[in-house]
Amino acid sequence: MVIKLTVSAWGVAFVLVAILLGMTIRLNRCRTLITNPYCDNPSIFKLSCENVYANNVYGLTFTVVLLTASIGSPHLFQNHSSMFDHGFVLIILHRFPQYPEYRKTGAIMFHIVPGSLNPLIYGLQSKEIHKCLSNIFHFKRVKPSI
């Protein structure tokens, strides 16, 4: 069962990325400057002089489906919700070319914030770290009165 789930997850992702890559490669480019800190699909779309409506619709659908489908358990939800929020802001900022500095900041934050939250999210779930922090900050449990 684990092998079937793994193969299906990788297979679906591979097919969806192959379609997205095929749609991106077919575009003619008439510009050469990417203003983001890294190269992503919306940045490549902006280099094209062709109509990229189909690419935008597929890319947005692809992003929403994969991000929402990957939220499977509560501890993953915390990390994915942060990534989803930053990704959503970044997707929206690509639609407003008059704010390139916000888009650059959003792109950097998309990679920094979720990764920085991992030690916090997973570390606080560790009983040893939780106990140590409780001792340091002298958290006292409140016992309910009967």
From TrEMBL:
Keywords: Membrane, Transmembrane, Transmembrane helix. InterPro entries: GPCR1_Superfamily_Member. GO terms for molecular function: odorant binding; olfactory receptor activity. GO terms for cellular component: membrane. SUPFAM superfamilies: Family A G protein-coupled receptor-like. The keyword Lipid metabolism does not apply. The chain crosses the membrane at residues 6-25. This is G-protein coupled receptors family 1 profile domain-containing protein. It comes from Pogonophryne albipinna.
